[in-house]
Write a structure and sequence with these properties.
Elements lengths: L2 H28 L3 E12 L4 E11 L5 E12 L2 E8 L3 E3 L3 E11 L8 H6 L8 E12 L2 E12 H5 L1
């Protein structure tokens, strides 16, 4: 192998390593996102279905755009899984800004009473029910899919404002 080919191969390897390190850096910045909720509203309440709409807010404190291709969120009430939210609508989080993503939650209220012990701990007061959203943001950088985990917890009273 001559010197020219060696330099080209070395340069190509250097570029690939640099792009890989930059993608890793961007993924690490994605873990600094700050989550919240707002504008929660009950849209439907029947014996077999409760539907609520709310906005998941994500504050991006970094200097970079973060593109989200989707979300997979499990929702828990006092530690009991009650539903799952899948959102495949792409969203771009602008640098140093908060973005609100509208989500819809639908569940069977009977799942809330499956674990009567956890409900009794709240004194049967729905305001004290602890809701936890645990899931992943699906991010893609340079064709590399990444799953960024997140957890957000609030009481029903805090969520409904």
């Amino acid at each position: 192998m001559d010197l020219k080919k060696g330099l080209i191969i070395t340069g190509a390897v250097g570029v690939l390593i640099g792009v890989g390190l930059w993608a890793k850096y961007q993924a690490e910045l994605s873990y600094k996102l700050v989550y919240g909720t707002r504008n929660a509203k009950l849209k439907k309440v029947t014996p077999n279905e409760v539907v609520a709409e709310f906005e998941l807010t994500i504050d991006n404190p970094t200097e970079l755009n973060v593109g989200i291709n989707g979300m997979d969120i499990d929702v828990y009430a006092n530690g009991v899984k009650v539903t799952n939210i899948l959102n495949q609508v792409p969203v771009v989080l602008s640098p140093n800004k908060m973005t609100a993503i509208p989500l819809k939650l639908s569940l069977n209220p009977k799942t809330l009473v499956q674990n009567t012990g956890s409900l009794l701990q709240t004194g049967l007061n729905i305001d004290n029910v602890v809701l936890t959203m645990r899931g992943f943001l699906k991010i893609r950088k340079f064709g590399i899919p990444l799953k960024v985990p997140f957890v957000y917890t609030a009481t029903y009273k805090e969520l409904m404002g």
